[in-house]
Write a structure and sequence with these properties.
With 310 residues, the protein is of the alpha+beta class. The protein has five helices and 20 strands. A five-stranded antiparallel beta sheet has the order 5-4-3-6-7, with no helix packed on it. Strands 10-9-8-11-12 form a five-stranded antiparallel beta sheet, with no helix packed on it. It has a five-stranded mixed barrel with strand order 13-14-15-17-16. A hairpin with a 6-residue loop joins strand 9 and strand 10.
Length: 310
């Protein structure tokens, strides 16, 4: 980190000069070169000096302002503080002792404060909301939604949020096993595969496309069951009950459907998965289990490629 915010001769030597441009009129100084405090990260810095509006912290190379409202009581020159550095509303680097939910390269679930013509603004606990550009959205959230985002620096060096690139950041080392009940947040719609879910806002998971996901929205919390744990640790989820419970539900629903068809279902388990899904709302495997259960109970017959109510 470099680029002290000194005033006067020392500041000019350190890389700051008086400037007449708009930025300088706000900050009093213009930085020369590309040296900047390291934003988006926690750092342990030493209190170098005190002013009426806070403290200047240093890493031995440069300084950054810690506003008075963030300073601990009895803070003194020479103390070392763990701080997070970000850009304020005037694009000046400042430090805070407040906890933030994510750092550069990390991700977290944040609440959308508002959506404007240029993008969305997210609450991350700092005076300046975190900007989410439209170009970094996978879906358009609404004010009040809580969505999963990662933190990155844009081409101008500003900290911004993105809904993209989350898949590779999620952990595949979950503590969950098959049939465990879990809760997760929808972070992306992969229409050819299903719905991508972050279990506990942390673990990689997916709801397959044959689940009833049409009415779901980005950021929605869903209660699911772990259907399978893949070899790479990713979780396959289902919103259906455990097989022994769900089979009874599916049998009743299927029997009602057969009655709606006048007692004859014009296809069997040999139909394509898409046809079965469209007509019954069941996966092919669930459909076959329900048919088998009804047949064993002698509630249906299987003849001539049709399923009839007995």
């Amino acid at each position: 980190m470099a680029g002290p915010l000194h005033r006067g001769r020392a500041g000019r030597k350190a890389g700051f000069v008086k400037s007449g441009n708009a930025h300088a009129q706000r900050t009093g100084w213009k930085q020369i070169g590309d040296a900047m405090p390291e934003v988006g990260k926690y750092q342990e810095l030493k209190i170098a000096r005190k002013t009426d509006f806070g403290f200047y912290l240093t890493d031995g190379k440069g300084e950054v302002l810690l506003p008075k409202r963030y300073a601990p009581e009895n803070a003194a020159i020479g103390d070392r503080l763990k701080v997070f550095v970000y850009m304020d509303s005037e694009d000046r680097p400042v430090a805070t002792t407040e906890e933030v939910p994510l750092t550069l390269g990390g991700f977290a679930a944040l609440k959308v404060r508002e959506v404007t013509k240029i993008g969305a603004f997210l609450d991350w606990g700092l005076p300046k909301d975190l900007f989410l550009p439209y170009a970094e959205m996978t879906e358009h959230p609404k004010a009040g939604d809580t969505i999963l985002v990662r933190l990155y620096q844009d081409k101008s060096g500003r900290l911004s949020a993105s809904m993209k690139g989350l898949y590779d950041l999620l952990s595949t080392r979950s503590p969950y096993q098959r049939n465990d009940d879990v809760k997760g947040r929808i972070y992306e719609f992969g229409h050819d595969f299903g719905v991508f879910v972050a279990v506990d806002d942390r673990y990689s998971a997916m709801l397959p496309r044959h689940e009833k996901t049409d009415a779901m929205r980005i950021g929605q919390l869903v209660s699911c069951r772990v259907a399978n744990v893949k070899e790479d640790g990713k979780l396959d989820l289902t919103m259906r009950d455990r097989p022994e419970v769900q089979r009874e539900v599916d049998e009743e629903a299927l029997l009602s459907l057969i009655e709606e068809y006048g007692g004859v279902l014009p296809f069997t388990e040999k139909a394509t998965p898409d046809v079965i899904q469209r007509e019954t709302g069941l996966s092919k495997a669930a459909f076959k289990r329900a048919i088998g259960g009804l047949y064993k109970k002698r509630l249906i017959t299987l003849e001539d490629g049709k399923i009839r109510k007995a």
